[in-house]
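Hi U.,

Before I forget, here's the chain from the pilot set. I'm dumping it here mostly so it's searchable later in email.
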Amino acid sequence: MKAVIQRVANASVMAGENHISSIGRGICVLIGISTEDTQRDVDYIVRKILNLRLFEDENGCAWKHSVMDKGLEVLCVSQFTLQCILKGNKPDFHSAMTAEFAQPFYNNILEQLRIAYKPELIKDGQFGAYMQVHVKNDGPVTIYLESPAAPTDIKQLSKLEKQQQRKEKTRTKGNSESSKDRGALHSKVNTSVSDEAEGELSSEKVCLGR
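Structure:
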């Protein structure tokens, strides 16, 4: 998941002639959801949005407080174009989650923000609409975020582990069968030697009898 966070003096969203929402001082967040995103990415982005220290403290010292510390507003806007991959000069958006799945995913982000913060301070645009986002960037301050890559796939590790176990079992079984074969061969050799010895002994008896 990708996000662009701007510290703003004010920001608003319009869809055509319709005013959707607006905030005073706070942050405006553009959010791009990818096909690979999970709840883990939601948790990361929500935590960063609310805890990034983009504001000054009471003494004017910069980078000390977050929106939660200051009780400021957050305006979120779904922005699939953040997942753009350029093919030459043409934008390609195949890595962006399709609207069918992205909308409930985006709503989940908003819900998690409202649970973690004050619901009335979380505003958003209109999902899927052609919007005009008016931002008065304060600073300017713009932070680009990307949720970290997932750790090595546990399922893949499990699959590899099972493959290794099967190899070990096959090897063990092969060794066991080889041991049995060697045992059988050894038994045959001993029987053959024993029969041969008995034959020689009988021959000796015959010779002695003459």
